[in-house]
Amino acid sequence: MTTPKRYELEDDQWKRIASLFPPYRTGRPSKIDDRTAFNAILWVMRSGAAWRDLPERYGAWQTVYSRFRLWVESGLFERIFEELIDDPDMENLSLDSTIVRAHQKATGAKKTPSVWSKIKPLD
């Protein structure tokens, strides 16, 4: 097995989802295969970069983006998530105080009754 590039699927991961992809149905053959397009989408999503910053090894960003839109509309990503939901990837799971926000009243500020507590219910 070859070592995948950053943000790309490994061979065994691809084998689990490869059958979920719809056949390509245009008059001419696609310039990139489904795996390359999917890896390109993962690169954009995980790196946070703009579509136009997609590395050249993935092909034209317009091709990848149009494939992404087709797959979103077809529900492909939901099917992939359903297939992989029992196999969570805990590698990127992290929780720290920089991402957990607390309400100002949770920090010990003086608690005042809300406006809604003063309203009497109708009989």
From TrEMBL:
It holds the Pfam family DUF4096. It comes from the Bacteria. Residues 9-81 form the Insertion element IS402-like domain. Coiled coil: none annotated. This is Transposase. It comes from Levilactobacillus koreensis. The lineage of its organism: Bacteria, Bacillati, Bacillota, Bacilli, Lactobacillales.
